[in-house]
Design brief:
The complex is a heterodimer of chains A (155) and B (101). Chain A is mainly beta and 155 residues long. Helices cover 9% and strands 53% of the residues of chain A. In chain A, a hairpin with a 7-residue loop joins strand 2 and strand 3. Chain B is of the alpha+beta class. Chain B contains four helices and three strands, in the order H-H-H-E-E-H-E. A three-stranded antiparallel beta sheet of chain B has the order 2-1-3. The longest helix of chain B is centred in the first third of the chain and has 20 residues. Classes of the chains: A mainly beta (155), B alpha+beta (101). At the A-B interface, strand 2, strand 3, helix 1, strand 6 and strand 7 of A face helix 1, helix 2, helix 4 and strand 3 of B.
């Protein structure tokens, strides 16, 4: 299970992004956006990940996407990308690693927050509780896409 | 098949200890961010902030690539390249700012 939290009433979750093309694993703060079709990162997060933004943001690669806030442009970043969610259980004193694989994410230069869209969220049953302030993403094994889960004791 | 190979390659290069370290430091940075959020909103609304080891660095939000790169260099210089992985970097919305993403 992956757990999120609320910030200013907005549902958030943190994930570490990893791929062969990214220089080092980096922690990225995502908005859980069940209305967005695709997972998209901001320009600031793309730079944090060491992505060559000049190569990615090219006119020939531009995709126009619609949104309730108006249309915007996004640019695909291809190559299998691992999103790792980590949770700690004090009961077992273990850390669980939950790695989801996406064939691509997108870069949205005009976005102010990186968003987890339905290309990833459709794999989960999502529980958003305002009362407890918790967000739980439970993996649906029939939700498609590759994923791996395992746990390890704290060192 | 190609995807399977990609996934296997990623898994081979995954350093769980490194991931654990990134998350551990990330949680500490996030905790400091949470505890100081009211002050951060007052001082940095409408900007991108990076929180690392109880230090806050901010740059303006921009969708211009060259400006974003310059801003990123500032962040990296101020907080250290080695700390970027676990730094809590986020946009601080202005009070009552409506985001429709």
């Amino acid at each position: 299970m992956c757990q999120g939290y609320f910030k200013e009433n907005r549902p958030k979750v943190d994930a570490i992004l990893y791929s062969q093309n990214l220089k080092k694993p980096k922690l990225i703060n995502f908005l859980v956006d069940t209305g967005a079709d695709i997972t998209t990162i901001t320009l600031a997060d793309a730079l944090k990940l060491g992505i060559d933004v000049h190569r990615v943001i090219a006119p020939t690669r531009r995709m126009d996407v619609g949104g309730v806030g108006g249309p915007t442009d996004v640019y695909p970043i291809e190559g299998t990308i691992g999103l790792t969610f980590l949770d700690y259980s004090s009961e077992t004193d273990k850390i669980s690693f939950h790695i989801e694989f996406l064939e691509r994410i997108n870069l949205g230069p005009r976005l102010s927050m990186s968003i987890l869209g339905r290309d990833l969220l459709d794999r989960f049953d999502i529980e958003i509780s305002r009362v407890s302030g918790r967000i739980n993403l439970k993996r649906n094994d029939f939700g498609g896409g590759g994923h791996i889960c395992f746990s390890r004791p704290i060192r | 098949m190609e995807d399977k190979e990609h996934i296997e390659r990623i898994l081979r290069t995954l350093d769980l200890g490194e991931l654990q370290g990134v998350v551990k430091r990330g949680i500490e940075n996030h905790k400091y961010f949470e505890e100081n959020y009211d002050r951060i909103v007052k001082e940095y609304a409408g900007r991108i902030v990076a929180v690392i080891s109880e230090k806050i660095v901010s740059v303006p939000f921009t969708s211009n690539i060259s400006e974003a790169e310059k801003n990123f260099d500032i962040l990296e210089r101020e907080i250290g390249k080695e700390n970027m992985g676990s730094a809590h970097i986020t946009y601080i919305p202005k009070p009552n700012e409506i985001l429709m993403l």
